[in-house]
Amino acid sequence: MRLSTFKKGVHPGNYKHFTSLKVIEKLPLPNDVFIPLQQHIGAPNTALVKKGDQVRTGQIIGSTSARVSSPVHATITGIVKDVAPFRHPIGGKAQMIHIRRTGDEDEWDLLPAFTDWQARSAEELNLRIHEAGIVGLGGAAFPTHVKLAPPKDKPIDSFILNGCECEPYLTADHRAMVEMTDKVLTGMSIIMKILGVQQGYIGIENNKLDAIDVMRDAIRRAGLDFIVVPLQTKYPQGAEKMLIQAILRRQVPVGGLPMDVGTVVNNIGTAIAVAEAVTEGKPLVQRIVTVTGDGIREPRNVLARIGTPFKQALEYCGGTNADTAQVFMGGPMMGIAQFDLNVPIIKATSGIICTKQAIRNTVQSGPCIRCGSCVRVCPMFLLPTRLTRLSEKGYWDDAEKSGILNCVECGSCAFICPSHIPLVQWIRVGKLRVNERKRKKAA
Ligand code: SF4
Ligand code: SF4
Question: Among 369, 412, 416, which residue has the most ligand 2 atoms within 8 Å of its CB, making it the best to mutate?
Fold first, then answer.
């Protein structure tokens, strides 16, 4: 049977065997957590606690009144040691709240549980998602309550749950689908109630056949009519625009969003967070993280408190090998190389990958040999080589006209380039500059 997929893309290898059968384990409570005040796209939060304050697990410790924002919560019970800049896994330093644990158990600050969520209004449920600090856990960290409240002139008719996990190595969503199936389906049902849509799809790549079977079985048992769509294994299938193309055959317009084609996409981890926030009153204080690669002694999937230093998760997994060359946050295609293992697990940390060989090319890049490979694989039909040239030269108007803002930063072009040109890195710089200029013009 020919499976659905999107046009173009790459096959970067799987590497999921390290952890695809590893049951999710609870990471022991950390002694210290470092919680960045901003872990989302949007307005920054202000600290609501100060040095010396006692906090309970789930207590809100940072927020803002801006609509596009998401609060942060204490992820252990303890004392605030500091509110200060600490090293951040995305790069540089950022304002964080350092909490030191005071007991062996959590003292929870829970929201009221909506066990009767079916009887609650869409507004009430979406407010809960906001209060619980839920953002897209696939890595984008866009506030979920904003995504679930599209403008009135953008009617939504379909919801897609993203079970692709197309980045090599990562298996957190895979294990969640197999082990936490009912929570995934509850979260999906709540999201669809908020959006008021009837048609729900779950896209899963065919390198996770057990997840496809388990989800289908659970859907049948629950009497739901969600459709599981098996997809070809290809990168970047999990990018929203690609997934919509693969499942619904709809093309998100240039510069547009999924809501422009009547669709909303959320990931597996986000659906679980929604279910826990609504039915148990639990704010987002933990997430599943895949700790993997040939550079870690005991690769595992762990349920970790947000703010836990990477170092502690790595130690729980037996520590890194002496010849480990690189540690990455996220997958190898879009992830970020780490230089300080004291950085904290944040809401966007889907994985920590340790490898003996450098994942990202560290060799000198050569000249473009005009092979056209980057153009052949770009799923957004862009000309990565041209966008890179325009970024290098600072021709921002031309870069914008050439569609630089449509780049989803999947890294397929850089992956395929035989001359090892850091195409996506240059395009990222270009996008930043073009966006800055647009903001200045608008102001
Ligand atoms: S130009 Fe952007 S969207 Fe196209 S392959 Fe490169 S990173 Fe991906
Ligand atoms: S893949 Fe690299 S060498 Fe080939 S055309 Fe693109 S930039 Fe040039």
Answer: 369
- Per domain, the residue ranges of the chain are 1-26+109-360, 373-442
Written as one string, the DSSP assignment of 195-233 is HT--EEEEEEETT-HHHHHHHHHHHHHHT---EEEEE--
| Nearest ligand, CA 427 | 1
Peptide bond into 236 cis (omega under 30): yes
> Which 3 state secondary structure label does DSSP give 148?
coil
Q: Kindly report the pTM of this predicted structure.
A: 0.95
Q: Write the pLDDT tens digit of every residue in 202-258.
A: 999 999 999 999 999 999 999 999 999 999 999 999 999 999 999 999 999 877 899
Q: Whose CA is nearest to atom 2 of ligand 2?
A: 417
Ligand 2, atom 3, residue with closest C-alpha:
368
Atom of ligand 2 nearest to the CA of 369: 3
Task: Considering the domain delimited by 1-26+109-360, tell me its CATH architecture.
Answer: 3-Layer(aba) Sandwich (3.40)
Q: Are 164 and 238 in contact, with CB atoms under 8 Å apart?
A: yes
Give the integer Cα–Cα distance in Å for 167 and 374. Answer: 18
